[in-house]
Design goal:
Largest sheet: 4 strands, antiparallel
Distance between the termini: 20 Å
Helix content: 40-55%
CATH class of the largest domain: Alpha Beta
Shape: globular
Order of helices and strands: HHEEHEEHHHEHEEH
Number of strands: 7
Strand content: 5-15%
Number of helices: 8
Strand order of the largest sheet: 1-2-4-3
CATH topology of the largest domain: Aspartate Aminotransferase, domain 1
CATH architecture of the largest domain: Alpha-Beta Complex
């Protein structure tokens, strides 16, 4: 438990480090689009502030997962990339894989942290080295999915760049390197997750949900605080995780033992954690 607490404090911006248990998943509401003189969306003029990070216990940007497309639309890709460049200053281009856009981060640690934070906001993201990939699809609409992608990269980059000192970013790099000594960050890979699901259910009693997302397995938690706690603990244990209300999602991955064993360990810690809180109250 002490190790987990230390890891969580390492990855959170300073304003959350001593109060993240008290953060409430309450949304600030949506903001409308603004347009420049050229008739295009002025993405860099929309937000004055952002909701709390889902990583810190705030509300996920989306209630359900935003998935990538199976093919790309040049206009959608161009607008998402234009928006990303405007709000972050990072390079953004079409990915070689249809349905994704590719963002060049300043460091591999930045890409790794953003990948974890964005998945917790319920927007698909994946990373390799200093490259972060975000979803795009031909059915994406300007005021909906396109805005979702640009908003979530604006929000998470804001916290990474504006709220975290270089020294803390170095601490995060050290933590991620240490975590990778056991196994690399486990990201969702579409496939058969039955072995993982059965192992988790047998060891914890957690029931599978009826959600069907490629690469993700959902499990029902008793309440939102438990789902948030387990999500955060998994992410600092090198297993991507996210939640939708009380449903906790973990990745399908060929390293099924690492996924299931980590979830089982975190479940046991969560059970003890909330039992102690109940006794204290």
């Amino acid at each position: 438990m002490e190790t987990l607490e230390s890891r969580i404090k390492t990855v959170l911006p300073p304003q959350y480090q001593d109060c993240y248990e008290a953060v409430q998943p309450v949304s600030m509401g949506s903001v409308g689009l603004k347009y420049g003189p050229d008739g295009q969306v002025a993405w860099n003029e929309i937000w004055g502030s952002f909701c709390d990070l889902a990583m810190a216990g705030g509300p996920p940007h989306k209630g359900t997962l935003l998935l990538p497309g199976t093919e790309s639309d040049p206009k959608v890709v161009a607008e998402i990339c234009r928006g990303i460049r405007m709000v972050t200053g990072l390079t953004a281009d079409e990915s070689p894989t249809p349905g994704w856009v590719r963002v060049g981060c300043e460091t591999s640690t930045m890409a790794d942290w953003l990948c974890r934070a964005i998945n917790m906001e319920n927007v698909s993201a994946r990373c390799e080295d200093s490259i972060l990939e975000l979803p795009a699809g031909p059915a994406y609409r300007l005021e909906k999915e396109i805005k979702n992608v640009i908003t979530v990269i604006a929000k998470t980059c804001h916290y990474w760049v504006e709220h975290m000192w270089t020294s803390q970013q170095r601490e995060i790099a050290t933590l991620f390197k240490k975590l990778s000594e056991d196994f690399p960050l486990l990201q969702p890979i579409p496939g058969d997750g039955s072995v993982i699901s059965a192992a988790i259910h047998q060891a914890t009693g957690m029931q599978s949900t009826n959600h069907h997302y490629p690469g993700w397995l959902g499990f029902t938690c008793p309440d939102v605080p438990t789902a948030i706690w387990m999500m955060r603990a998994l992410v600092v244990s090198n297993v991507l995780a996210r939640r939708e209300d009380t449903a906790l999602f973990v990745p399908v991955h060929p390293n099924s033992a690492a996924v299931s064993n980590t979830v089982v360990q975190i479940h046991a810690l969560a059970r003890d954690h909330f039992a102690k809180l109940q006794l204290q109250s």
